[in-house]
Amino acid sequence: MMFDPQVIIEKLPEIASGLFVTLWLWIAGVLGGVVAGFVVATARRFGGTLVNAVLGAVVEVLRGTPFLIQIFLLYYGGPFVGLMLDPIPCGLIGLTVYSAAYYSEVFRAGYASVPIGHVEAAACLGMTRFQTISRIQVPEMALIVLPPAINLAVILLKESAVLSIITVPELTATVSAIGSQQYAFLEAIFILAIVYWIIVELTDRLGRMAENRLSRLRFSKA
Amino acid sequence: MTPKLFTLLLEAALSTLGISLISIAIGFAIAMLLSAALLTGKSIYVLPARLFISFFRGVPLLVQLLLIYTLLPVIGINVPGIVAAIVGLSLCTAAYQAENLRGGFASVPRGLIEAADVAGFTGAQTFIRIRAPIALRLTFPALVNEAIMILKSSSLVSVVGIIEITKMAQDLASSTYEPIPIFASAALIYFVINSAIALLGRYAERSLKGATA
Amino acid sequence: MSVPAIAIRKLVKRFGETTVLQDIDLEIPEGKVSCLIGPSGSGKSTLLRCLAFLEEATSGMITINGEALGFFEDANGRRERLPANQIRTVRTKTGMVFQQFNLWPHMTALGNVSEALKIVRKVPKAEAEERAMTQLRKVGLENRAGHYPSQLSGGQQQRVAIARALALEPKIMLFDEPTSALDPELTGEVLNVMRDLASDGMTMVVVTHEIGFAASVGQQISFLDHGRLLFSGPPAEIFAKPRHPRLEQFLDTYLDRGASMLA
């Protein structure tokens, strides 16, 4: 058996297009998840007992079941309820919903980390709830939520490989297809692993740099 | 969706549970070895352990499974698919568990280790009798979380053809054309098992606390 | 007789089954320093928090300069919640100082003080900061304007918090045990700022354990016990002997905290 990654590397443009799909799905999924997760956490905090209970149950189910099953439900089950989705939009929606559930927990912890007195001080000064959230709670929780938010982003990058199973033409699908065509599956998977490894390490480092910058910019609590 | 189909899913759940539990256990053993290697502080042990942890935390589990599944036969190891799947899950969870344990070992009070030194414990004895039990207690909640993660991740072994809940659901969905009730049932089973693990974990955590207090 | 700064009528506050405040009736005159004293759990902090609308009373009514705070209750006890923007307007007539300072850690002292001017009063940044500086000067901290809360001592933080509460130029200042979280040697600087405010004629309601401060600066002392207002009056009357047995008992526990001067 010869190990010859050359046959895979020759297909660089195709790999690049798969990588591109992975990256944009990932970034869109993370951004969508951050926004939706923040909305969910905020609704849970201020929306009353019923809203909190219902959203809490949805979040628990999304966190308690495999991403793959959720994707199958959306992709294969969707058409039965009139939701015909192509692989890419299906993957994007699935990834966003899944990440929103996890990000909502990050922001929930973030809200809980801001002492209630800081919010009361804002209320006494006549700030509206929106002003209090945007000027006090969000900036105060930023440092606390940053590390878990970055961790979660890294986890989501890895989860996005699952989308290859419903034929989303992302990195894993593209490279393993090349591997099969070229009769060099092991080489293909090996290269695939290395590419993911590099992106994950880079993201981790960038995240840590951002944390350091932020903690120097803002003053940590005494 | 008939009760018979649901029973099939439940049977497959046993396979999911089995695969996950075995992987968690093997992963835990490897994670302890990795921790011991990291604690030696000798680069000959530390570097490979770090590389291992970084790799298995840096690569999607699906890719790891494909890699192991393809690699094993090539290097002359012919094992059933399920063994390859368990190897894959174990290595992956070992890396995550090692990372959790690292935090636990770091918070073992220095004084306890020095006390063991003074009492004449060898390095291995200190590790087994003092450091590991304390670190384990500290990281127990993370271990429970990891068990839940692995249970969910085990759905990926369906990709290499292992029959567990997800694979069973997929097969049933394509033969019955009832994907919604079948995948929803599968999701429900996962959810119930995970909730049970979380509950047991909290219970165990409380009794652990009781034992230390 | 003019309208009292604060009028509290038949105020009741319950948390679930527990009644924390029972039928409180109290008028706080304008330009006076009114101290709420009493053992812990007596409800004095809850009463103050009702005045800041941080707690919503179960029944009864509070008026600030004659305007209803939060709820309007007619003679038949029918109660109606006022619109949110009106609540905000009325509550900014008071400024609140907390036991735990509650400065926003991500803003400098100047930022803390100018924030509400900028976003609530929509004052342009430069003017807001100038006005904030004036308040910081008043509490003697103009040279700490650029410091973050974590870089300030407890006493300095509390003085910034007072400046922040003063920024919107409230008619009334509410203090919730402003020195209880401070090391003893830092209480003096905060009490001095409060004395200055009092001599400027600010209406102040102070929940405090500093009996010495209450006796010397307070013009109205209210003693609460088990959610009831036992009595209220000028210090000379309240602290004169013979005292109410509950007050006597309360003062005994505070003898070494400044109450010895009343012994």
Quick description:
Chain A contains nine helices and no strands.
Shape of chain B: flat
Summed over residues and divided by their number, the pLDDT of chain C gives a mean of 88
How far apart the termini of chain C lie comes to 35 Å
The 3D shape of chain C can be described as: globular
Tally of discrete structural domains of chain B: 1
How do the helices and strands follow one another from N- to C-terminus of chain C?
A: EEEHEEEEHEHHHEHEHEEHH
Q: What is the CATH homologous superfamily assignment of chain B?
A: MetI-like
Rounded radius of gyration of chain B (Å):
20 Å
How would you characterize the overall build of this protein?
The complex is a heterotrimer of chains A (222), B (213) and C (263). Chain A is an all-alpha fold and 222 residues long. Chain A has helices at residues 6-9, 12-46, 48-64, 67-77, 87-113, 116-124, 129-159, 171-181, 185-217. Chain B has a single domain (3-212), classed as MetI-like (MetI-like fold, Orthogonal Bundle), CATH 1.10.3720.10. Helix content of chain B is 85%, strand content 0%. Chain B has eight helices and no strands. Chain B is flat and about 70 Å long. In chain B, 39% of the residues are buried. Chain C has 263 residues and is of the alpha/beta class. Chain C has a domain at 94-169. Chain C is built from nine helices and twelve strands. In chain C, the strands form three sheets. A six-stranded mixed beta sheet of chain C has the order 8-9-10-3-11-12, sandwiched between helices. In chain C, strands 2-1-4-5 form a four-stranded antiparallel beta sheet, covered by helices on one side. The model of chain C has no long low-confidence stretch (mean pLDDT 88).
List the helices and strands and how they pair.
The complex is a heterotrimer of chains A (222), B (213) and C (263).
Chain A: H1 6-9, H2 12-46, H3 48-64, H4 67-77, H5 87-113, H6 116-124, H7 129-159, H8 171-181, H9 185-217
Helix pairs in contact in A: 2-3, 2-5, 2-7, 2-8, 3-5, 4-5, 5-7, 6-7, 7-9, 8-9
Chain B: H1 3-40, H2 43-58, H3 61-74, H4 81-106, H5 110-118, H6 123-153, H7 165-176, H8 179-212
Chain C: E1 6-15, E2 18-28, E3 33-37, H1 44-51, E4 59-64, E5 67-68, E6 71-73, E7 79-81, H2 84-91, E8 94-97, H3 109-119, H4 125-138, H5 154-166, E9 172-176, H6 184-199, E10 203-207, H7 211-217, E11 220-225, E12 228-233, H8 235-239, H9 245-253
Parallel strand pairs in C: 3-10, 3-11, 8-9, 9-10
Antiparallel strand pairs in C: 1-2, 1-4, 4-5, 6-7, 11-12
